[in-house]
Amino acid sequence: MNRMLTKLKKGDEINILAPSSFIDKEEDFIKGIDILKTWGLKIINNNILSKKYGYFAGDDLNRFEELEKAQNSKLIIFAKGGWGAARLLEKNPNWGNGLMMGFSDTCSLLLSKYSKGYFGSIHGPMITTLFKEPEWSLRRLKNLLFEGYVEDIRGLPLKKGIAKGEIIVSNLTIASFLIGTDHFPELKGKIIIFEDINEDIYKIDRMLTYFRMTNKLNEIAGIGFGSFSDELCNPEWKGLLKNLIIERLEELDIPILFDLPIGHLSGNACIPLGCEAILNGNNGNLSVHIPCY
User: Fold this and answer.
1) pLDDT by residue (tens digit) across 212-260?
2) Is 90 labeled as catalytic in the residue annotation?
3) CATH number of the domain at 13-147, please?
4) Which of 19, 35, 58, 192 is 20 to 30 Å from the Cα of 50, by its Cα?
5) Topology at the third CATH level for domain 153-289
6) Catalytic residue (one of 66, 133, 166, 195)
7) pTM for this structure?
8) pLDDT, tens digit, 9 for 90 and up, residues 20-39
9) Domain residue limits, the chain
10) Catalytic site residue 247?
């Protein structure tokens, strides 16, 4: 795996793809595009707003071919999530070495690319969520893409200790469904961060229990949790989630962080998969070192 991130510069052309659901909020999409243009990036036009096939942004073959054609791009940013990205994995994409960013449903593509030995997957905002990001998050993303660094972020420590290892970030539901496929990465020695959206507590319990039963978390270095809602949670629900995480994972004897600014809640800190990271369960700090040229 080439573990060097290629920094962007003004004038670079990038691709916007919709591998999942069709774009139903054109205004949100345009606002996201406008932010990228102010950074000096040029958008390759593929008439993405006109593409619709059932609840997808085109049929499976069309979306797969768009993904394949864009693999030489310096940067692919996914337009939105929803559902449908994992269907493209049945055709076994030929991954390239460029950057590719998204979250939620598109985590299936990020994880597949990483598991196949390719660097460049970034868990971060998509085009239709970009305009909602606070200034610190946009600054972080621009720094990552153009300068090759990100500042530390902080969460709430649930279990003390310090973990060092490559970092993997994913939507919990999507990661759960990839277990048993060759698109699911090796987790041994890794730092894992999960996010999700508006799932009932019992469903999160089910997924964490499934991870326990598959022994996939037995040799990870540390684990963190981002937001699990697209709006501020009430304290009671958040308390239930925190207690569930402690109860299900405490015996792993690894540091655990909670409430990291990663996921569907605005303030979705971008994290490049495969980079060396330090998760500090003593002070809540998460730092990521990004090799680049």
Assistant:
1) 999 999 999 999 999 997 666 678 888 999 999 999 999 999 999 999 9
2) no
3) 3.40.50.10740
4) 35
5) Glucose Oxidase; domain 1 (3.50.30)
6) 195
7) 0.96
8) 999 999 999 999 999 999 99
9) 13-147, 153-289
10) no
